[in-house]
Design goal:
Blueprint lengths: L2 H6 L2 H17 L9 E5 L3 E8 L2 E8 L6 H11 L9 E3 L4 E5 L13 H18 L3 H6 L3 E2 L5 H14 L10 H9 L2 H12 L5 E3 L8 E2 L9 E2 L6 E3 L6 H11 L6 H12 L7 H5 L2 H19 L5 H17 L7
Parallel strand pairs: 6-10
Antiparallel strand pairs: 1-2, 2-3, 3-5, 4-5, 7-10, 8-9
Helix pairs in contact: 4-10, 6-7, 8-12, 12-13
């Protein structure tokens, strides 16, 4: 286990959390009705349920490499308070936040109806449109940036980094493999230039957009509220389609070219029609998805900073796989 995972399980840490939670409850004049209810300890975070006389609250502690999530969540929620979780309190230096209970997520709907994804992606596109003019505020809160204009240089840096690690290191990339990847990256560099020159502005790529990260609305007219910005980056917004496309393809036993999935993607692209027709915008999807694999790589690199050797071994493939997948064309 990583050092922070070990500490999250200690009585000393629980005492610190208990004291902070008590201070937050006192500020809001809330009263605890049961002991803190601990959740699973993951590499990336752990959560605790706080039972109060006004319902449940959720405490979250995040991996040190993703510590900026708490400040980012608060900053983004100030811009779009009806579409994001608004923490009651944050402790940025310790990576802590406590948030209200917004109810069940879309994951609780016992259906794989592709039209549910249409609703999720439509509402998420609207959120991205709202956030697009606020890059500076989100950068100040700690949001990482993977601008397509700079991705060719970033790729070179990462290949060099992995190739320069000692041969026995779990994240080592043999020099021959790094050189081979580098030779195949011509089309990827062209895709980066294509995205950078395109009309669609950069915005927040959630990078983990699944049903469990979208709350059920209280009414059909109310927008979906999104959660969990720990993996997010400022990047080409269409990269957020990666997980929805993969999930729909698996659920429906088909490929992203299926007419049902194309209908969902069209619903997403429709929200961007200020920047071109749906058919014109569709040309930006594969480049965004291919280069979006770098968000996955960067996220794992952040999460594993300071991790144990066992964690590095366990997750090495998830770090290196996105780099190798950059050169693989997608079927859309």
């Amino acid at each position: 286990m990583a050092e922070w995972n070990d500490y999250w399980g200690t009585p000393a840490w629980l005492d610190e959390v208990d004291a902070w939670v008590s201070m937050v409850l006192e500020t809001y004049e809330l009263h605890r009705t049961a002991p803190l209810e601990r959740g699973a300890v993951q590499l990336w975070s752990t959560q605790i349920v706080v039972h109060t006389d006004h319902g449940k609250l959720f405490f979250k502690a995040v991996n040190p490499g993703q510590q900026s999530e708490v400040a980012l969540t608060a900053a983004a929620a100030r811009i779009a308070p009806d579409q994001l979780v608004m923490p009651l309190a944050v402790e940025p230096l310790r990576g802590w936040m406590i948030s209200p209970d917004y109810g069940e997520t879309m994951a609780r709907i016992p259906s794989t109806d592709y039209q549910l994804w249409g609703r999720i992606l439509r509402d998420f596109a609207r959120l991205q449109r709202r956030l697009a003019p606020h890059g500076d505020e989100l950068f100040d809160a700690g949001l990482g940036q993977l601008d397509p204009a700079f991705l060719p240089g970033y790729i070179d840096e990462q290949l060099l980094l992995h190739a320069s690690l000692p041969a026995g290191h779990p994240l080592h990339l043999p020099e021959r493999d790094a050189e081979d990847l580098h030779r195949q990256l011509g089309p990827v560099r062209e895709m980066a230039a294509f995205l950078a020159a395109g009309p669609v502005p950069l915005s927040l790529d959630h990078n983990d957009l699944h049903r469990g990260n979208a709350f059920l609305p209280a009414s059909p007219e109310e927008p979906l509220r999104f959660i969990d910005l720990g993996d997010a980056y400022w990047a080409h917004p269409f990269a957020s389609l990666a997980m929805p496309l993969g999930t729909m393809s698996k659920e429906l036993g088909t490929t992203p070219g299926d007419p049902r999935i194309r209908t969902v993607v069209n619903a997403y692209l429709h929200e961007w029609q200020d920047y071109g027709s749906v058919e014109d915008l569709r040309h930006y999807i594969e480049p965004a998805l291919r280069l979006g694999k770098l968000q996955a790589h960067a996220t794992w690199m952040r999460m594993l900073t300071g991790a144990s050797d066992a964690d590095l071994e366990r997750h090495a493939a998830q770090v290196l796989r996105p780099l190798s997948e950059l050169v693989s064309p997608l079927t859309l």
